[in-house]
Amino acid sequence: MSEDTSGEPATSVFVHRPGDAWEAAAELAVAAVLVVSLHPAGGYRWSPIVSSDGAVAEVFGTVGDDGAARFRVLGKSAGSAVLSATTEHLGDRFGPPTRRWVLRLRVLGEE
Tens digit of pLDDT for each residue in 23-82? Predict the structure, then answer.
């Protein structure tokens, strides 16, 4: 096994595409980064991703013009947080219902 000497935090990737499950779980080490990409179905756009506990998992990113959410999540301290985002149907405010995506994140490390 080789040691990472780049000084960069360890990075993992999570991608949600149309048709994937609306709930997922992941683990992340303290000081590691999870790159999250949420791709919308046609006619939808994602809201920004939020963390239930910013002291455990801090979220940075944007929703692009294409409606995709692209965020980086930093594991700040050991514990659990729920990351969530919702979809919005474009063009018809009475269109299909909003859906909520949830990622139950466990950050591992010293408490």
Answer: 999 999 999 999 999 999 988 999 999 999 999 999 999 999 999 999 999 999 999 999
The pair of three-digit structure tokens given for residue 6, joined into one six-digit string: 């780049």
- Quote the pTM value: 0.86
Distance CA 3, CA 10 (A): 11
Residue identified by tokens 């609306």 is: 22
Total domains present in the chain: 1
Give the domain CATH number at 85: 2.60.40.2020
What count of Cα atoms within 13 Å lies in the side-chain half-sphere of residue 26?
25
Contact by Cβ (8 Å): 36, 49: yes
| Burial class of 83 by CB neighbour count within 10 A (0 to 12, 13 to 18, 19+) | buried
The two most distant CA atoms of the chain are separated, in Å, by 54
For residue 111, what are its two tokens?
């408490």
